[in-house]
Amino acid sequence: MFDIWVFVQQRDEEIEDATYGLVTEARRLMAQLGDAGQVTAVALGPAPESVLAALGAYGVHRVLHVADARMTRYQGEIFGRALFDLVQKENPACLLMAQSSETEDLAQRVAAMMKTALVTRAMDFSMAADGTARAIRPVANGYLFEDVALDIRPSPIVLFLPSVLFETEPDREEAATVINIPLPDPYDDLKTRTVQVIEAAPEDLDLEEADIIVAGGRGVGKGDSFDVIHALARAIGGSVGGTRPIIDWGELPYERQIGQTGKYVSPRLIINCGISGANEYTAGMEKSQQVIAIDLNPRARMFRFADLGVVGDVREILPLLISRIEDQK
Ligand SMILES: Cc1cc2nc3c(=O)[nH]c(=O)nc-3n(C[C@H](O)[C@H](O)[C@H](O)COP(=O)(O)OP(=O)(O)OC[C@H]3O[C@@H](n4cnc5c(N)ncnc54)[C@H](O)[C@@H]3O)c2cc1C
To answer: Is the CB of 282 within 6 Å of ligand 1?
Structure first.
């Protein structure tokens, strides 16, 4: 019997949408394997039992839940060891995760401990009953794709790009069985411990965590021209992101790319400046709550996603906007 595992991604005791997308993937894999198995969710850290049990309505059979006072904040060593312990004991067919800075760290730790196959940034994953597994992943920032064959023993780990995960509606009235598991050992030999948590300046905040994002595209330009994006972000307490051309130009590091092959963001507000709105970009930001778009071209696709659209030149509008904001302060 196949046991497909999905990692529960949660924030503030709520399950993030990507988890439901993973369950959809797990059920698709299960169908490929002749429906002979079950879907298990793994949740690390405190979470209300009712929230975990509700995953049953989406097709999860059981939830393995490791909660401990030392797991309220992500700590790579503790989470890594807890997950490794579970995987080693239960030997699932595979472990599916949604790519984020946290799961990237966690998956690498567990894969190294298990000496197993790890695929990051997967766009597709398939398993066949004859024991073969394949994954497709973008490389060279989405300019090429790799078709990767995986060893399926021990259990491979696959991190999906969140932009390819689609949640389905709940289709049954069942509750998943939640199995509470204590942390397996005293953890008194940790090699690292958190001594202080330092708040990042909003501009440097991880895009996945940011409440406000100012994003620049090719229309903003390079070098000194791009400084206006940083200035607006500073003025409104936002984090800075960009489209692929901006990363290709070296204006921002890769972890600041938004889109299908970059980060998947859902801020309260995103201001898109000089961005045409290609679907590879919008896939990464369409869950933003409020969208402002500024672009010269009134027909830019970006405006379809905007709550407020401004047709005009960012070189004129942004300095004006910044000085108005500074005046208000
Ligand atoms: C497999 C694959 C994966 C990809 N992944 C990503 C991804 O993750 N993220 C991503 O961003 N892209 C990705 N892309 C690239 C994507 O298709 C687009 O090429 C890219 O998003 C375009 O970026 P842009 O909007 O900055 O540039 P453009 O499409 O060139 O748009 C520039 C915009 O600026 C406007 N403009 C020009 N001058 C001004 C001005 N002075 N003031 C105001 N507006 C102005 C123009 O009217 C235009 O709308 C991917 C492509 C592929 C094939």
So the answer is: no
pLDDT tens for 42-80 read 999 999 999 999 999 999 999 999 988 889 889 999 999
Gap from CA of 282 to ligand 1 centroid (Å): 10
- Same domain as 145, residue 67: yes
Q: Does a structural domain hold residue 274? A: yes
Q: What's the rounded Cα separation, in Å, for the pair 278 and 243?
A: 10
Distance 246 CA to ligand 1 centre (A): 9
Question: Mean pLDDT for each consecutive 10-residue tract of the chain (329 residues)?
Answer: 93 86 95 89 94 96 93 92 95 95 95 96 90 90 90 93 86 95 81 86 85 97 96 95 97 94 91 97 93 98 97 97 92
DSSP letter for each residue of 162-205: GGG---------PPPEEEE---SS-----S-------PPPGGGS
Domain membership of residue 63 as a residue range = 2-180
Q: Is 188 domain-assigned?
A: no
Would the CB of 278 count as within 6 Å of ligand 1? yes
Instruction: Establish if 238 belongs to a structural domain.
Output: yes
As for how many domains the chain has, the answer is: 2
Ligand 1 centroid from CA 17, angstroms: 26
Is position 192 within any domain? no
Probe ligand 1: pick from 276, 294, 304, max atoms within 8 Å of CB? 276
pTM here is 0.81
- Residue 257: φ, ψ to 5°: -80, 130
